Amino acid sequence: MKKLFIIFGVLSFLFLMRPIIANTMQSQNSANSQTISLQKTSIDQNSEDHGAYNGLLKFYHYTGFANATSGNLLMILIGIIFIYLAIKFDYEPLLLIPIGTGIIIGNIPFVAGNQTGIYETGSVLNYLYFGVVKGVYPPLIFLGIGAMTDFSSLIANPKLMLLGAAAQIGVFGTFLGALYLGFRLPEAGAIGIIGGADGPTAIFLSSKLANGVNVLADGTTVKNLIGPIAIAAYSYMALVPVIQPPLMRLLISKKDRKIRMKPPRAVSKKEKMIFPIVALLLTTFISPSALPLLGMLFLGNLLKESGRTERLAETARTKLIDIVTILLGVTVGASTQADIFITKDSMMIFALGALSFVIATMGGLIFAKFMNLFLKGDDKINPLIGAAGVSAVPDSARVVHTEGLKSDPNNYLLMHAMAPNVSGVIGSAIAAGILLSFLG
Amino acid sequence: MNLILSINRISEGYLILTTGLSIVFSALLLLVLFFKYGLPLLLYSYKMITKKRVAQIEKQPVNNNEEFTGEIAAAISTAIHLYLNDNHDNENAVLTIKQARKMYSPWSSKFYTVHSRL
């Protein structure tokens, strides 16, 4: 309690000092005013006071109180909202808590030039941010995802893979929208990948295309959009339970929502082992630019399925992915430094991000209905699972499952929805590779 | 090259949209086809190849040990069964719990730093 009083006392002292210091600053500037200059000389006379006063002034100028801008305060508020959402509503807490804290860290006002900020060369945050800028973290996350994912539902029912491809229309639709809003091609490509609903892929592509370093053919440098894109991707991923259900109800009739799918067949161990190798070969031969992502994804899966490297798989899906998630979350959050983040572009990216999720979900749902036209009897699929084609593993599959249960309390869609969900991950990585090879 | 550069950005966007989407679809379609038709074929052929080898192994005569009778096997398995199920002696069910001395020292204790009153 005593300490609390001391802290409160110091803080209120600093606040009280603020107008006094501001006054003296003015007095130094306006030397014409006689009365104030008298005050000034009286201060000058007392040299001891002067030294202490200057030190205090200097200290004050180094504090956050002197350097705070409304942008900083707004971003700190957003960071707190992220943390609140994560704790209160359990929206992707593993991501939103590090990102929310990162936003607060990145927006603590500071004096530039002391190697403090994330954008200042040599600062600790800058070194950690290296993993984002150079696209190191996303493949490591993919390694962990691979070691976690069970592809058996996909192997049992391969046609569901197409739903993952259909949802990628969100990527390309947003890409086009960004072009119409005046973004240049590489920037639009990076923004488009928000529609892939995959945080690591979005960071990977934006670090390659919209990194503020690349020079375009006309001599201009692309904008650095990594922060806004990552924040948009992760925020909308957390909001999947809010965005998707209304679209599902809008597009899928009550009757269709009740369709029961036959349980997937048992998949042998051999098939599970062959899957990562074959999928790696096929997908990366088609889209080699996605190699860092897909290579790591399937490596992780092979570690899991080989049955011989359980130790490595265990590390990849627990400790490694946890470490990288912490670093990624904090640095991406901290990259939202107000003076760089609060721009018109960021607002447009957020609008486009919401649109991309809508387009991707609708693409998946409509394609699922379209597929049903060709399927008969038992083979018919429940169109709701099309919504899981946007990656956002495993949230969108879970949303599909709960929506299915609302229509029919005995219809369990989770296993079926996991198939388009994981193929969405593969699809968005391929889409990222394609955009990279076209625009990189 | 100049011609390509002069193409409108939007039209280039449409070009990327159509080609990109079709590539994504074709990549995943290829995977679908492989896992629908290719993999069963692969597994079937693997089965056919290994079947011969398995048959060869089966053909090898098994040398029966005349001395190892069913009775000996029964005796061994009974012994193992008894051993596994009766691994522990009957221990005393009464527990005596002694209070252990707390092993922390106050110099690094948070309790003392928070509540220190001088």
Account of the protein in words:
The complex is a heterodimer of chains A (440) and B (118). Chain A is mainly alpha-helical. Chain A has 2 domains: 70-129, no CATH class; 136-439, no CATH class. Chain A contains 23 helices and no strands. In chain A, helix 8 (137-148) runs parallel beside helix 18 (291-305) and helix 15 crosses helix 21 (344-372). Chain A is elongated and about 90 Å long. Chain B is mainly α and 118 residues long. The longest helix of chain B is centred in the first third of the chain and has 51 residues, at 9-59. Chain B is flat and about 85 Å long. Classes of the chains: A mainly alpha (440), B mainly alpha (118). At the A-B interface, helix 10, helix 11, helix 12, helix 17 and helix 23 of A face helix 2 of B.
Topology summary:
The complex is a heterodimer of chains A (440) and B (118).
Chain A lengths: L1 H28 L4 H12 L1 H16 L1 H4 L2 H20 L3 H14 L17 H10 L3 H12 L3 H5 L4 H6 L2 H12 L4 H8 L6 H11 L16 H13 L1 H12 L2 H4 L11 H18 L4 H15 L4 H25 L3 H4 L2 H29 L22 H13 L6 H26 L1
Helix pairs in contact in A: 5-6, 6-19, 7-19, 8-13, 8-18, 8-19, 11-12, 11-21, 12-13, 12-23, 13-14, 13-23, 14-21, 15-21, 15-22, 17-18, 18-19, 22-23
Chain B lengths: L1 H5 L2 H51 L10 H16 L24 H5 L4
Q: Give the termini distance of chain B in whole angstroms.
A: 82 Å
Number of domains of chain A: 2
Instruction: Note the main sheet of chain B.
Output: none
The secondary-structure class of chain A comes to mainly alpha
- Separate helix tally of chain B: 4
Mean pLDDT of chain A: 88
Proportion of strand residues of chain B: under 5%
The gross shape of chain A turns out to be: elongated
Q: Uncertain regions of chain A: pLDDT < 50 for 5+ in a row?
A: 31-38
Features of this protein?
heterodimer, A: 440 residues, mainly alpha, 2 domains, 23 helices, 72% helix, B: 118 residues, 4 helices, 65% helix, flat
